[in-house]
Amino acid sequence: MEQQKHNTELNSAKLSDTKLGNKVALITGAGQGVGQGIAIALAKQGARIAVAGRTEAKLKQTCELIHAFGGEAQPFIIDITDAASTTDCVEAVVSHFGGLNILVNNAQESPLGLLNELTEIELERGWQSGPMATFRLMKLCYPYLKGDGSIINLASSASKRWDMSGYGGYAAVKEAIRSLTRTAANEWGPDNIRSNVILPVAKSPGLGWWAEHNPEEAQAFLNTIPLQRFGDCVDDIGQFVAMMCSDESRYLNGQSIALDGGQAYLG
């Protein structure tokens, strides 16, 4: 037991000397998939992670994965569609860690379906969990991010599909997130807060479910990726986000970057 404790302390000391040593990151939807991958990658670079989401068991699982290599993580329950819950979460994170340096808005409900089938309720939930939640969290975290902050918001290249059938609602809310991010980059840049967007294609549980239930469409989708594979949540998505949040990318601001193996052209 003492040896295990000693090893953990050594690992923690090593992590504090890495790219994100002792920075605090709040990541929504971090219980699985891309959010979990980003949480693990940032923790490996020394960040202390606020693992936020709706399902406590999943949040604890992510924390355990981080604790296993000596990282620091704490679970926080949040309903990103509820203003009070969001406010309480941010306050709890700052109280626990003593500050906040990185915000990753990852959680999102996806309003998918043809326009004649997509309901107003589904589109509204996409709006509330996407642009509105992103807007709310950015503003709540702004006072703590001033001076040395990085915001990473998640969007999608769905609006760049030549055939957007079935993706109109999803693309609409994701494009709104890109607009909010670009605005924050301009308005908050003087406060030394950098705001950027990633548009990932990764083998998350959600994509896995979709591929299993739509095998032909999934194969056709995969064929449009030049690298011919889906991204790994930790190694392909998370590690890049860690670099975006580090001093190595201190001049990166207001950009949308497709982490999709070359599939989308954003020009």
TrEMBL record:
Family annotation (Pfam families): adh_short_C2
Gene3D superfamilies, per database record: NAD(P)-binding Rossmann-like Domain
Native species: Vibrio sinensis
GO molecular function: oxidoreductase activity
InterPro entries listed in its UniProt record: NAD(P)-bd_dom_sf, SDR_fam
Sorted UniProt keywords: Oxidoreductase
Keyword Cell membrane set for record: no
Protein name: SDR family oxidoreductase
Family per record: Belongs to the short-chain dehydrogenases/reductases (SDR) family.
